[in-house]
Every structure is written in structure tokens, then in C-alpha cells.
Amino acid sequence: MKVILYLLLTSLAVQATAREPVLDRAHMKCLYRYVYTFDTLKNELRDDLLILQIGKEVSKCYSYYTFQCDSLQRTPDGAKVWSELFRRAIEKDGIYGDFPHVRMSTYVYKNYPTGQMTITDRISSQGYCYVDSLHTQTWAMGDSTREVLGYTCQQATADFRGRRWTAWFATDIPISDGPWKLGGLPGLILKAYDEGQQHVFTAVGLERVKDEPIIFNQQDGRNRRFEPTNRLDFLRMERRFLMDSNSFIQMETGIDLLGDEPNQVMRYDLLERDY
User: Fold this and answer.
1) How many CB atoms are located within 10 Å of the residue 204 CB?
2) Tens-place pLDDT, residues 229-258
3) For residue 203, what are the β-bridge partners?
């Protein structure tokens, strides 16, 4: 089932991105397991698999699972395939399992445009796009070392937009990059976490690739252009959505999911807290 699903989604991904612009070609790819606290009251954890494509000039970091879902939705038969995969997952064991569903919705394009980052993201069903500063973390080097993926990594710490981050980077991989928006060190970041470890990125795979296209997705999963915004406005909208998601859904669909039930409170804070 997993092999068939992988081949099917790979084929759909190729179809969905065939007409998208190629920003660069990757020569290396790093996979990160991303574990985050979804509900701070219940200490509920969720996980994701992030892909970092590294090119000569541009890199792209995104969720493998979200990319699966977006690729399905962009194809003409996407809805049909999605329904069939959902049916199989339910029949299998009653849980989602291999079923593709959105997790981290952020796509990070570093050094695009040159010296900056382009971020695409979504709130509910609406996609947004904004430009951000590149490598704004001011790292303090530590003396500690640890091994990640067989590489000796050096410690560095930085305060970044409301969180104190610890990063472990490998100077044997002289690439100034890392998961999500993190980077700017003299080596690839293979592990990073905030104080309290509500967000933890850990490299689980590293491979050299040959001329793998780094594609800029110009449309969201519903084949709609992203609405331009700026970082702080996006974070404020995202926080309002998390505080009152029912109102957003009701505005989009006309459906009141809660009725007379009280609205859920925000169960976790954003990765960036400086909104």
C-alpha cells in the first residue's frame, strides 16, 4: 500500500508542478523530523517530515505530507483520488495512517529573491505569500558538541522572534542553512529546538541528489494565487484564526460548526511570537 501510494503521489506531484517555475537545482536534500506541541494544556505532540532541498543559490523547505495533499488537489482528478485514499484508510484500520493530509503549511524559499526569503502559507483555506529577511538570527557559539547523523555538530544559541533556539550544526557540511527559517551558521543545522522543546527539528536523512528541480509553487492546493501580505499581518491573522477558527470557517462556508457550543481557546502558540 505504501509503495503504491508513494508512486501515485510522486506521479501526481510531477503533473502538478510541471508548469511551475524552477528557481534552482538541488544538489543535496536533508530530511527533518519535526515534533511540536499541539496542545500545551494536554502536552499533546504531533509530528511532521520536512524536506530541505539545497541548491547552489536557493533552498526550499516544506512538509512532505502537506506537499502530498497539495499535489493531489492541484490535479484534475485530485478530488476523486483523495476520496479513494480516504476510503482505503478508513477501511484499513479506522485512522488516517498513510492518508495524505496537511500538516505544516509553510513553504520557505531561502535566497529568493536574492538576500531574502519568500514564504507561502495558509490560514484555513486561504493561501498567503510574503517576503521575509534572510538569516536574521544572531548566533552565540557554544563549546558543546554532539553527534547527529554521524556528524560531529557544534552548539549555537540565538533569540529569534520570541523563542530562544539551540542549534547543532555540522562544519563538515559547509552549507549555511537549516530547517524552517533557521540558518546563517558555518555549517548545516542538523538539530534545533526552542527552550522548553515545544518545537524540535532533527535531521533523519541526508542525501546527495543530481539536478533535482527546486520549484516555486505559485498557487495553493486549490489552484488559487496566493494573496500578498507581510509577515506580521499574517501572524496576527493566524493568531486570530486559532483563537476563533469557527468564525473564519463560518465566513468562508456559511456553516456554523459550533452552534451554541463555546469556542475553543488557542491551544498552542505560534513558532514566531513577535506579533
Assistant:
1) 13
2) 999 999 999 988 888 765 655 555 555 545
3) 32
| Residue pair 9/68 in contact by the 8 Å Cβ criterion | yes
Backbone angles phi, psi at 96, to 5 degrees: -70, -45
Residue 73 and residue 88: Cα distance in Å, rounded? Answer: 18
In this structure, is the dihedral angle defined by the CA atoms of residues 89, 93, 98 and 102, taken in order, positive or negative? positive
Phi, psi of 50 (to 5 degrees): -100, 140
- In DSSP notation, 228-239 reads E--HHHHHHHHH
Buried residues in 213-243 as b, exposed as e (16+ CB within 10 A): ebbbbebbbeeeebeebebeebbebbbebbe
Question: pLDDT tens digits, residue range 202-224?
Answer: 999 999 999 999 999 987 656 57
For residues 173 and 26, give the distance between their C-alpha atoms in angstroms, rounded to a whole number. Answer: 15
